[in-house]
Structure formats: structure tokens, C-alpha cells
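notes to self, project folder thing:

trying the whole complex as one job this time. last attempt i did each chain seperately and stitching them together was a nightmare. three parts in total, labels are on each line so i dont mix them up again. if this works i'll redo the older ones the same way
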Amino acid sequence: MPELPEVEVVRLGLASHVVGRTIVKATVHDVRSVRRHLAGPTDFTDALASRAVTGVARRGKYLWLQLGDDAVLCHLGMSGQMLMQRPDAPAEKHLRITLDLDDGMQVRFVDQRIFGGMMFSPGGAELPAEIAHIARDPLDPLFDADEFRVRLKKRQTGVKRAILDQGLISGVGNIYADEALWRSKLHYARDTCHLRSAEVTTLLANVTEVMESALGQGGTSFDALYVNVNGESGYFDRSLNAYGQEGLPCARCGTPIRRDAFMNRSSYWCPVCQPRPRNGRF
DNA sequence: CAGGCTACCTGCCCGC
DNA sequence: TGCGGGCAGGTAGCCT
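result (full assembly):
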């Protein structure tokens, strides 16, 4: 479940099941899901065995289990799931890693495409060093809106590219970028350096609002790939105004939503509400 | 720093 | 029915 709301849904679900529990044993079913762990999967499982889980934290789309001072850092990639299962439940087709807990339950990392993965981060409980370059996300109480505005306007790039940059603001992916831009009436190619202060303020407010709203509805799911720890889908897809809406009437003006290829992916936008800029500005 | 491209993977859907 | 191409919510790394 890729973007911030979906990852937060997973974090909340994990926290309710694993905090206070001990990892009895970790099992790696596919070594490709253990990432950046040069010592190999055996060292990874050794590092997790008999460790008590003290918390579950998140920054942007990364989440990590806190094990005292250390951490198990997880990214769901495009297709990762964290499922709470009983040991006798049949193995999922794409089961990659299992954590056996001392209450008899299992945390199962299921990931079809293996763009996600886990790694052990020594001393990483507060913030794993591997993701120190990731900016705070807008749901973080310490997110600095003024700093974001200053850094955004210093960029010389398109506004969508900027808000997808996890080093500037984290947690935003393709769905919520398009939704926030639609709400803000901004075209994805608008130059960051030519945005008016009011536009930046509106954009940040909309990024925050759309992700909080999606979180309140359990995230966005188009299919069974995006589910919480109990295998349930969120229903924010019903509230989407731009993403995936090609050809459907814009909820504000009725003009058909368009789809462009941009950054090797799709961008959805209303040609009337979000007019394409000339040279990045109007 | 900007940004284009590729790679990493699997599976589904479409047209032929 | 099979095959090829395009598509999918992400990130890292290389090159210019």
C-alpha cells in the first residue's frame, strides 16, 4: 500500500498487534525482499530473533518496528502488504518474510513485485540512518511548513515533480499528488519558482487535507493488493477527483479529465481548472 | 541540483 | 489460445 495514508493504515494496524510482543523467529522466504543487508538473510533473521517490539514508527512511506534502540525498516514498494495471520493460514502466493510472535500470531510480509523490502537498522529506532535523507511528512507534528515553502520556491522544476520528491516532502505519491494539484487548480508542470505564495500555501493545505481524508477512509484501494493488516480495503477511491478519472467529467466544471504521460507514469488533470502553463507560468 | 532514463519484479489486460 | 506490448500506488542509481 504505497502512499502515506495506506502506510499509516498499516502502521496503526501493526502497532495494535505487535507492540509489547517479542519476535520469536524471523523467516525469509525470498532473499530479494531483504534489502541492503550485505551480511545476508541469515544475519537478518539472527538480528531479529528474540527481540521485543517496543513501537512502530513511520516517516513518509517508510515504517519501522522499533526493537529497543534498533529497528526493522520496511518499505511496501508498489505491492507490499503486512498481514496478521495465524500460523495455520495458508501461505500467500507472494509471501516473502514471516515474523513469528510470542503470542502465536505471525506478521507476514507479502509483496508481489518485490519493489518493497525489509532491512535491519542498528541504532535506527528513532530514525533509521538509511532514510535520514527523507523529509518529514505533512502529518508529522514537527513538519516545518515555512521551510517547505522556502525550499519549494527555490526549486527550478515542475510542481508535481517537486511534491513527489521525498527529500522535499515525504509521503506523497502519484495518486495524492494528482488529487492535491486538482484541488489546488494547479497544472503539474507549473514551475515551482513562479508559484505565488498563496498557491504554495493552498497546495500544502490540500496535500495535507487529501491525505488526512484518505486516512480517515482507510486509504485508497483499487484491488486486493492494497489492504490493511486484516486484509481489508480502504474506500477513498470513491472520493478521487482526478487520479484514474480519464474521460470522466471534472467534478467542478464537467470537462473531461485528461491523462498525460509524465515522469514515466500517468498524470490526470482537468484542462479547464488546471490550465497548462506556457513556459511554466501563465 | 535538474531531469531523463533504466533497472528492479509480477501480473493483468488489451489487441492481434 | 498464445504472444507482445502497455500498464500499475515506488525508489535508487547512472548518465548528461
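what i see at first glance: Helices of chain A lie at 4-18, 41-48, 145-154, 159-163, 174-184, 197-216.
need to look closer tmrw
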